[in-house]
Amino acid sequence: MKKKSIYCVYLLIIMLIVLYNDAHASNRVTIATIGGGGGMVNAGDNRELQKLVDQIIVFWKGEFDKVLPGHPDLILLTEACDRPGGLSTEEQFNYYKIRKNQVLDYFATVAKANHCYIAFGMKREEKGTWWNSCV
Is the pLDDT of residue 106 over 60? Predict the structure, then answer.
């Protein structure tokens, strides 16, 4: 297992422990997992990066609408779920610079409105260095 993946697994275990400890013995913790992700939105001929960010958010709204009626406590998404498919490496980094925290902020809004946690992997920049992080 890659070092980055191990950190993501550790974070998920910690989140599950917190959810377990917060739950009363009679309560169940509901976890929803959604596969696929940003790759389901393909850049194709569209290289307008802000439009791709908007498409990613619309895609995830549709996916969340499928699982939120079950009132999950935790929603687990895939790594790079906020990146559209079909971009070259250079285009991906240009996309990240436009995306900034737009998708993260959308996920946070959904989590807060639905009283749940959302965990996912994303590429982020900190002081000029790019990190693959589980958020």
Answer: yes
Can you read off the two tokens belonging to residue 46? 């569209």
Q: C-alpha angle with apex 96: 95 to 100, nearest 5 degrees?
A: 120
> How would you write the chain as a 3-class SS string?
CCHHHHHHHHHHHHHHHHHHHHCCCCCCCCEEECCCCHHHCECCCCCCHHHHHHHHHHHHHHHHHHHHHHCCCEEEEEECCCCCECCCHHHHHHHHHHHCCHHHHHHHHHHHHCCCEEEEEEEEEECCEEEEEEC
Q: Which residue shows structure tokens 């910690």? A: 14
Binning pLDDT at 50, 70 and 90, where does residue 109 land? very high
User: CB of 58 within 8 A of CB of 104?
Assistant: no
Closest of 60, 62, 64 to residue 80, by C-alpha: 60
For the stretch 16-60, pLDDT in tens is 666 666 655 567 899 999 987 776 777 666 668 999 999 999 999
Contacts of 86 (CB under 8 A, 6+ apart): 42, 43, 44
